[in-house]
Amino acid sequence: MLDETVGYTVGHGLFFVDGKEIGRVPCLVICQDKDSRLFTLYYCDSDWNLLGVATNYQSVDAAKHRAERIYPGSSERWVETSSRLR
C-alpha cells in the first residue's frame, strides 16, 4: 500500500488507462503469471479493485523499478507474500 510518504511523478508518461495517464493509486501488486512465468504489475484502488495492469516484466525487480519511476519511495513499501492460486 502506498501512503503519503510515497511520491508521485506527474507527467511520467509511463502508464495510461483509456488514453489517460494513470494518477496516484493507493495499492500496487506484483504477481507472477502462471503460464508465461513473466510478472505483472497491478494498479489498484484502496479496496484492491483493479485500475490497470502493466505486463511482461522479466523479474519482480523489473516491475518494482517501473513502479519506483512513477511512485518514488514505493520500493520501501513492498511486502513479499507466498500466496499462490492454483
Nearest-integer average pLDDT = 87
Task: State the end-to-end CA separation.
Answer: 25 Å
Strand composition percent:
25-35%
Helix content: 10-25%
Please report the number of helical segments.
1
Oligomer: single chain
The main pleated sheet reads as: 3 strands, antiparallel
Strand order of the largest sheet: 3-4-5
Based on Cα principal axes, name the global outline.
globular
The total tally of domains equals 1
What's the β-strand tally? 5
Unreliable segments of 5+ consecutive residues: none
The computed structural class is alpha+beta
The sequence of SSEs as H and E is EEEEEH
Rg for CA atoms: 13 Å
Supply the key terms.
86 residues; 5 strands; alpha+beta; single chain; 3-stranded antiparallel sheet
Task: Describe the protein's architecture and organization.
The protein is α+β, with helices and mostly antiparallel strands. It has one domain. The protein has 1 helix and 5 strands; from the N terminus they run βββββα. The chain has a 3-stranded antiparallel sheet with strand order 3-4-5, covered by helices on one side. A two-stranded antiparallel sheet has the order 1-2. Strand 1 (16-17) and strand 2 (20-21) form a beta hairpin. The protein is globular and about 35 Å long. The two termini are 25 Å apart. The mean pLDDT is 87.
